[in-house]
Amino acid sequence: MSVNTSSNFNGEAEKQWYVIYTRPKWEKKVAELLTKTGIENYCPLNKVARRWSDRIKVVMEPLFTSYVFVHVSENEKWMVRDFPGVINYIYWLGKPAVVPGADIESIRFFLNDHEKIYLEPSPVKSGDRIRVIGGAFFNAEGTVIASRGKKVKVHIPSIGVSLVAIVAMSTENIMVLYS
Q1: What is the pTM of this model?
Q2: What CATH number does the domain containing 64 carry?
Q3: Is residue 121 in some structural domain?
Q4: 169 neighbors 147 (Cβ within 8 angstroms)
Q5: H or E stretch including 35?
Q6: Both 30 and 90 in a single domain?
Q7: Mean per-residue pLDDT, 110-124
Q8: How far out from the chain centre does Cα 55 lie?
Q9: From CA 49, how far away is CA 37, in angstroms rounded?
Q10: Cα separation of 28 and 138, whole Å?
Q11: Which of 5, 42, 96, 177 is in the most buried spot, having the most CB atoms within 10 Å?
């Protein structure tokens, strides 16, 4: 028996969270344009104190540079790319990467509960299980084979094949699942 996961009981298309890549410094503008059009989106914003020559001001900056999350159906997915400032979707295995709703909620709760958040590199070592959170292998999980300098070699088993990828070491690219 097969189950149709692309629509709900009302015949409406089921929505999923995707990540769109925006022009630099356009995250808030893109989120605003999407909202005005009625497309659900999430641009995680972080309170950051910025110093000018005459004052210190608290500003809201995107937590993830050049990323905005969109919650759209399969039918709506392709019209999002036509918005000003949107470059493309982040892809995984040739398709726009899907982000679990639970991950979006975790980010929201974390930002609501904490202030002065920043991303920092997590040291990784051989044997660590990681998830790639940026770039071509977005959302892939793997095992660190070797770590040297700012690069890490990761074994990513997927679709019955093993890939070995050299991934730039930064918090924008790797999240340690467990050591």
Answers
A1: 0.64
A2: 3.30.70.940
A3: no
A4: yes
A5: helix 27-36
A6: yes
A7: 70
A8: 33
A9: 31
A10: 22
A11: 96
